Amino acid sequence: MGASNASAGNISVNGRTYQRGTAPVVAICVDGCEIDYLEQAAASGTAPFISGLLQGPSSLRAECVIPAFTNPNNISIATGRPPSVHGICGNFFYDKEAGAEVMMNNPKYLRAGTIFAAFADSGAKVAVVTAKDKLRRLLGKDLQGVCFSAEKADEARLATHGIENVLDLVGMPVPDVYGAELSEFVFAAGVRLLETQRPDLMYLSTTDYVQHKFAPGTAEADAFCAMMDEYLRRLDALGAVVALTADHGMNAKHDQHGAPNVIYLQTLLDDYLGKGTARVILPITDPYVAHHGALGSFATVYLPSHEAANRVIARLVSVRGVQLAIGRDDACKWFELPPDRMGDVVVISQKSYVLGTARERHDLSGLKQPLRSHGGLSEQIVPMLLNRPVRGVDPHRRLRNFDILDLAFNHARA
Amino acid sequence: MGASNASAGNISVNGRTYQRGTAPVVAICVDGCEIDYLEQAAASGTAPFISGLLQGPSSLRAECVIPAFTNPNNISIATGRPPSVHGICGNFFYDKEAGAEVMMNNPKYLRAGTIFAAFADSGAKVAVVTAKDKLRRLLGKDLQGVCFSAEKADEARLATHGIENVLDLVGMPVPDVYGAELSEFVFAAGVRLLETQRPDLMYLSTTDYVQHKFAPGTAEADAFCAMMDEYLRRLDALGAVVALTADHGMNAKHDQHGAPNVIYLQTLLDDYLGKGTARVILPITDPYVAHHGALGSFATVYLPSHEAANRVIARLVSVRGVQLAIGRDDACKWFELPPDRMGDVVVISQKSYVLGTARERHDLSGLKQPLRSHGGLSEQIVPMLLNRPVRGVDPHRRLRNFDILDLAFNHARA
Hints:
Chain A is an alpha/beta fold. Chain A has 2 domains: 3-250 and 375-411, Alkaline Phosphatase, subunit A; 262-370, Gyrase A, domain 2 (2-Layer Sandwich), CATH 3.30.1360.110. Helices cover 31% and strands 19% of the residues of chain A.
């Protein structure tokens, strides 16, 4: 059966079933899209289509995965399940046996298949466009379809990415990895793909460079929303089911003078337990840190014993800016995290604080604006907006951002 | 040594030492005082003295005790320590052996002495005024000084309350227990006591009837702040060190139609585990529920086994409005709660949700306005305002509302 006959049958992935309809589904993950960005842009009149979505029948709120970081949430959306199932709980984990910090950007660390791959395997046309290439590699695992990043759009080849000549298709040059254009490229590519290939399922995932720098309601933030607004309107006009959510929210993490509110956990625990006794892992750490300096509101700490873990929790009780510090077992149960990739203690900071390792290990020279970041409970509520009425959702069900494809396929069909 | 010679010596209570100075200290706990109340009243011009405090050198923020309820926080302020030390973690706990819910309003459940009693024992003049009498009984334990409630101001007798003829002193009738006057009486009594008896240490604790009904910036809320403002100004003018904090914040807990967002936990767990297997305790429950219907953002669940506790946590992961559900051990470590008075699972709801037992067990007939309440992480940040510069506080120290007397005695002296 060809891809154009995509209406037949249901597709089951990771214990969930998706009903294939006839209209194309475009799911969008706007990186760092705190609801305030949309509401302020709507209020200022710069985002009329988003304003309509916010006032429409499917203006929902959902909760993201903790840690409120990009990869765990994008992979949750791609698989429809939390990190306890798919295994990606950040950019790094610590391999105790190997004694090494391990980067989880390699698809081999993914423990579940994606909805994208399953759709493609069943004959549906699938397209995935990301801002950064590191995420493209994870999301594209085993996917027989279109999958490329804006960052390396010029490197897309038919054999490896399911598409080539992307720059010609989109009509934009390869954007700078630090800039709003990287995200705009994703939207522009999405519109052109829908116009030319009309995928049954498309996933667009942006980057939060703008959100890290600019607060909701600023000219730059409103301009970003206005840009999104126009592409969303076009996707809607092309007949797609458009569903938008975010990987996490975003909050100011600085004091009234603009200095970042940082808890340097490794330094603090070195002083407390002796140098190197604790190993602090910041799962936000990645090669692109200019906009946040690897400072987020979630950390996990590896310790030599249960007793040391208890001592760390007792110590953190008196540290300004820590909102929660609990043991791995409870953290993994509640936040649905993989125990073998989490430290002995999970630490979450307050809304206006971030967690670091040691001052000398964070390059803050790239921070040209007061720090804005994410990772904790204060960034968990995200928008979930659809351009169709959503029906048949239990009002007591906790909505997650990774329910977006469930809503789009199973509840938003006319 | 007489009470007027109170400047000599330090007083140690519960492992903390307080330096007695010469100026009287007035510590005020404004029940349910979310910072927004003060900021909006300051912005509207109705609270000029508070506005000055907010812009002054000692405009701090502190964290209250979780559960963010009145008694645990007032007792923490009175003892300078968290509930793990003083034992009061709500209005109720469940006595597993006795198979009975036990009310903790009786002073016998208090496991630590108060700072008030220690000051009085060392010869200082102490006065404690509460809005409700239930709190007066706990705060007044072993106190040789003035201690009465606005609610039963007419029942104060020299032998039992350290004072009598309170209505004459204050010049107000006994106020209705449901109304702003109950709190105003506390402030008015404080001013009159300072004028007539000049206690070395005075503690004033109001009630949150107004805050449960009215949002920040409403006419009623601003009027309450304006009332406070005038009394605070007078306390300041009388030469006192004035230190203000709150027992907890306050948030709207309803949907856009004004209906309360309630998770009925007992019903949910009866359906899930079988009737009566779980026992849900809401520590907010007390005899005065008209303004909140015994609905708050904290609950604890008693269960027959560790396995049942794990099942409950796994079930709650998918329930809308639950922000955190963790086991007793981790909850007691992080929130500094007494393990023998907590259930097997601690549940905290999201900012706009509350936890109930069963619909038929909550009388919501007294709710004339959309529900506002407290109890969880979203109500943890409270104001900490002093009318003197605060010196020598470690900037990395987590400030708690129960540090108020430490700040007032040890850090706010000129």
